[in-house]
């Protein structure tokens, strides 16, 4: 977080799985800040079925056994973090975001004209295609819900022009998507991505900078896919 135009940052640990924790987090921020230019809501988890299978080649009994092995509490945890936390964190931060959007920048311009007062949620391109080689059902469903949440919140916040958006990355190195020498579970799929590579931090940072800056100030309620063209070719196949 940047304080008073100085390159000063601070961190606050928070478990986003409860409203009480989110309230405490935003209260701490409100004690330090009068407005919030942007909220990057990035928390996410993935819970795969304990019994794995390749949906493209599994027998009927193997497919059912794999899907049935999914745990109810894993589904609940996935939605709690991947969707519900986005909702409550965005709502809790709404006054701070609205203050940023209404900030007087002089010469008749307000903060919203500069892209201020915006929520960017991290969704996934999994919300936009039907992956079948691995079972991402709970994860993909939670991300599809996030994409619709973006539209619902953008509409609800529209009178205050607090914008709500999401980025939907494809294969980007992370603890959830290991790539490279130490983890390459997706490396065999890169040749099937038109960009012929995994995404990187610059791809993601560039998109966020665009959406939260003057250049993106007229964009609202949109889910931006950043996947090197993957969903153009992979729908229902990979």
The name CATH uses for the topology is Rossmann fold
Question: What portion of residues belong to β-strands?
Answer: 5-15%
Q: What is the level-2 CATH architecture name?
A: 3-Layer(aba) Sandwich
Number of strands: 6
CATH homology superfamily name: NAD(P)-binding Rossmann-like Domain
Largest sheet: 4 strands, parallel
Low-confidence stretches: none
Q: Give the CA-CA distance, first to last residue.
A: 38 Å
Q: In the residues, how many domains can be counted?
A: 1
Strand order of the largest sheet: 1-4-5-6
Short note summarizing the structure:
This is NAD(P)-binding protein. The chain has helices at 19-32, 60-68, 72-92, 94-101, 137-156, 201-211, 230-234; strands spanning 38-41, 104-106, 109-110, 118-122, 163-169, 223-226. The chain has 238 residues and is an alpha/beta fold.
Describe the overall structure.
This protein is an alpha/beta fold. It has one domain: Rossmann fold (3-Layer(aba) Sandwich). It has 7 helices and 6 strands, in the order H-E-H-H-H-E-E-E-H-E-H-E-H. The strands form 2 sheets. The chain has a 4-stranded parallel β-sheet, with helices on both faces. It has a two-stranded antiparallel ribbon with strand order 2-3. The chain is globular and about 65 Å long. The mean pLDDT is 90.
């Amino acid at each position: 977080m940047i304080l008073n135009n100085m390159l000063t940052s601070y961190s606050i640990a928070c478990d986003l799985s409860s409203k009480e924790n989110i309230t405490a987090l935003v209260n701490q921020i409100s004690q330090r800040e009068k407005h919030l230019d942007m909220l990057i809501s990035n928390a996410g988890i993935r819970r795969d079925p304990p019994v794995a299978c390749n949906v493209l080649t599994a027998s009927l009994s193997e497919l059912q056994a794999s899907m049935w092995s999914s745990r109810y509490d894993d589904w609940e945890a996935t939605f709690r973090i991947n969707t519900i936390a986005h909702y409550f964190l965005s709502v809790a931060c709404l006054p701070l975001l609205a203050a940023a959007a209404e900030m007087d920048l002089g010469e008749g311009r307000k903060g919203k004209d500069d892209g201020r007062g915006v929520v960017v949620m991290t969704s996934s391109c999994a919300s936009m295609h039907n992956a079948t080689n691995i079972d991402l059902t709970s994860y993909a469903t939670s991300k599809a819900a996030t994409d619709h949440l973006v539209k619902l919140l953008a509409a609800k916040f529209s009178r205050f022009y607090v914008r709500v958006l999401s980025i939907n990355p494809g294969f980007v190195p992370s603890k959830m998507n290991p790539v490279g020498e130490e983890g390459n579970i997706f490396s065999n799929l890169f040749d099937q991505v038109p960009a012929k590579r995994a995404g990187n931090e610059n791809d993601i940072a560039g998109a966020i900078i665009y959406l939260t800056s003057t250049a993106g100030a007229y964009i609202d309620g949109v889910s931006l896919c950043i996947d090197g063209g993957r969903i153009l070719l992979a729908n229902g196949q990979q």
